[in-house]
Here is the input.
Amino acid sequence: MGDESSASKTRQEFTQAWLKAEPSVSAYVFAAISGFHDAEDVVQQIAQEAAGRFDQYDSNRPFVGWVLWLAKSRVIDFYRKGKRDRLIFSDELLDRLGQAFAQRAGQRCDRREALEHCLEDLPERSRRLIDLRYVEDLSAARVAAAVDSTAGSVRVLLGRVRNALAECIQRRVALEESP
Amino acid sequence: MNLNQELLDRILEGDLSEEERDQAAAWLESDDAVHQLAERAELHADLRRSLRRRNLQESALTDAADAVSPTSSETPTEPSIAKPEPSGDVQPIGRSQSRWSKKASAVLAVALAAAACLAIILFNVAPPSNGSQPSIASIAHQANARWADHARSQGDSVGTGVMRLDVGIVRLDFANGAAVTLQGPAVFEILQDNQTRLHRGILTAHIPESAIGFEVETPGMDVVDLGTAFGVSVGADGGTDVCVFEGEIEVSIPGSDKSRAPQRIIEGNAARTRPDGNGIEPAAYQTERFEDAWPVTSGVLQTTGLMKFVSPGPDFVPGRYENSEYILVFPERDDVVLETAAPVDLIEPGEYQRV
Here is the structure.
């Protein structure tokens, strides 16, 4: 009975910890791997590995730091398989990026919530553009073909939408914190 | 220093020229720059998640709104104080519906984001009590099912407790995403949202990422899922067989004798325990006994005539698999969004659903 309930407690603990850390892990993997489909596959591998090795996790340290450390190895594996050029992501940069995500993890929730509000105020046309990019996972060139524009101008427009959202998030988070 | 956001996006989209690479690498020497990159990556990743969820909800709500009859479709856009209707003002119904769905789904999206943040806090404060009986799973499909204890029908929700299925095939979809198909005669028990017990019978399960850690206990072994699809069969004597179709599982002897560490079993392998045997032993990978339940778990609810759904394991090469008696159907990939619509012929009247 004792063992049974402690095993189920461990599972519950893992699920909670993973749910909380997952947005940071996803963003980290996406930063280093860029394609959403590939990044999502790698995140799934990380979830499996973290679940399998949860008994090795030292609960005195932040869980998100531990999973990001596992994530780094999976990302490097991905590069090794030759699936993507490493570009600028040296081991050292991957470490520093992981640390940055670990430090930012605390405010992750507020920022995600702010984004949901900010998306409400987005003009229809911008929303369509980011839908094509993020839901359909189309490249700038293919978004351009869909909206009858050029890849260059789609890149600029997407950049502007992201900038507007980033500013909106910043404003909302600052507002929440001030009173 | 305010960085060029465009360069950030190009780094994240893997779209840098040689020259820009050097520029980016030099710039990322500073910690401030790394933080800016992290922040931008969060935005990309969150947009992907949020927009996908919104689109799913919007299409679900639009479908629901379309199904409503024309008279009841004039749902007020806001549940505020009733305004006198200006006479003669005709509203285009289609538009108001779609606006209504958009609005409703937007509210839902915000509520969900808040709930996701809250859930973690609540979980930490209040451990789930066993006093209440929340729904853990629902019956997604039944075929020729006869229940021994009491009648259940498709759509019914199920909480903790024992279920006795005399004959037939039943698929349970768990709230955490796990899909479990039972084949009667079977006695199955739900202990909690991710812990179940198969006392007798056959089940197949598909466990997505959201339900990793899902557990099936049997009299002979405990099976913990590590992100997979597998089948479990328990005989009348309690002897248990497991077969892993995809991914991997961990099995251990119940009562957790610490001297025996859990064993990993990876796809294409099988294991068994026998009441008089010594623990868990390897077994031949044979999927025949799961061939009735497995298609239902995979989403193929019904096939007709000579069609047979197979799950021949990871070494399967379609061209080499032969069968002169049946038309074989197998899952090639899952979770794939088709780029073009797949045309379908509907040859009989009835209700059809895109799943």
